Amino acid sequence: MNKPFYDNIVSRALQERSCSENDMFDILQNPEIDLLTLVHAAYQVRKRFTGKTVSIHIINNVQNGLCSEDCGYCAQSKNSQVPIETYGMKSEEEIMEEAKQAYEKGAFRYCMVFSGRKPSSERIRQLTHIIRKIKKQYPLEVCVSAGIIRDHEAKILKEAGLDRLNHNINTSETMYKTICQSHTFTDRLNTLKAARNHQLQICSGVIIGMGEGAPDIYQMANILHEYHVTSIPVNFFIPIPGTAIQYQQPLTPEYCLRVLAVFRFLNPRAEIRVAAGRELYLRDLEPFAFYIANSLFMDGYLNTKGSSHYKTLQMLRDAGFQIQSEFSLDELLMREKKPDLLNSPYDKKIKLKGKKDLHPSL
Predict the structure, then answer these.
(1) Which domain covers residue 45, as residue numbers?
(2) pTM for this prediction
């Protein structure tokens, strides 16, 4: 693709004007797209609106499993055969201790995730108490994912000090019935409306790799723009043995970066988060993702583990990014007990070739 193609997309995104469907399809599908040029183009938009800062989010599975919904991608689904640990809501003491740990690990936002269709009145009452307590003790933003939320419940949570409500759309409206039958795409949009009605920040993400095509990805990114979604976690499907959905699209590192670029161009101000599957699919190109996205999960995802704290923090530091935290990257890396690597990158790492390396045919 020629330079004017990229310049036009950047110009439209910087002016917050809609990018064309055909241009986005080209980004996703056209073999003539130059990856480095695309990443640079997306970085121009990312840098204008979010600088070179990355926000770290830590998920707390406050409740795990015991879900009535049949989402085919999820290890916590009622139809799942995945041998996960199931439990009801954690104690207040455990939740507060984990909030403290998240703060000390450099988290900007603490995300409490509940399984299940929707919260009871008692659950809403418990949540309001815990949100107030966390906000009082730690300089953390608080996000809650609790299933389908009605208008009056969103109002109560906002008044308690909740910063952000998470409710993922996961896929396009066209695709939705292929991944879930126990609730509808409209149910999910109604939760986003309830959050928007009460000025809660909205976090709503997607899962890439469940059979969707370019039109579905474009549709998802546009809907999230229409709902003024503040934060968009882009997950790459992890086919956990025992879940209903097991087919897997061939997601390459290049394709994952193309997808992130589409979400950036169509949602220029949004916090684009590289979520589940980043380690699995981006591989050696993972640092490139943060020239497009400006957020990540640390400490793993809803059902799966992620890379180590040290590896994640070192990657950000090596690429020259900063983090939203009261602690610097150097401070956090020191806590990981590998200070020798901070100032002397060759210390204890140089290994001379031995006989077997020099004479591989022997």
Answers:
(1) 3-337
(2) 0.92
Chunked mean pLDDT (size 10), the chain, 362 residues: 94 95 97 97 97 93 92 93 91 95 92 94 96 96 96 97 97 96 96 97 97 96 96 95 85 98 98 95 97 94 90 94 92 75 50 70 68
Residue 345 lies in a domain: no
Copy the structure tokens of residue 265: 């161009």
Domain presence at residue 342: no
Q: Enter the DSSP assignment of 291.
A: T
Q: Dihedral angle at the C-alpha atoms of 181, 185, 189, 190, nearest 10 degrees?
A: -50
So what's the pLDDT on residue 339?
47
The answer as to whether 38 is a domain residue is yes
- The H helix count followed by the E strand count for the chain is 16, 10
CB of 160 within 8 A of CB of 127?
yes
CATH value at residue 8? 3.20.20.70
C-beta separation of 243 from 77 below 8 A: yes
Question: How many other C-beta atoms can be found within 10 angstroms of the C-beta atom of residue 155?
Answer: 16
Phi-psi group of 243: left, alpha or beta (phi > 0 → left; psi -120 to 50 → alpha; rest → beta)? beta
Contact call for residues 236 and 280 (beta carbons, < 8 A): yes
How many structural domains are present in the chain?
Answer: 1
Query: Do residues 237 and 248 touch, judged by C-beta distance below 8 A?
Result: yes
Q: Is residue 63 part of a domain?
A: yes
Cα angle vertex 39, ends 33, 44, to 5°? 125
Which of 335, 342, 339, 340 has the alpha carbon at shortest distance from 106?
Answer: 335
Angle between helices 151-160 and 121-137 (to 10 degrees): 20
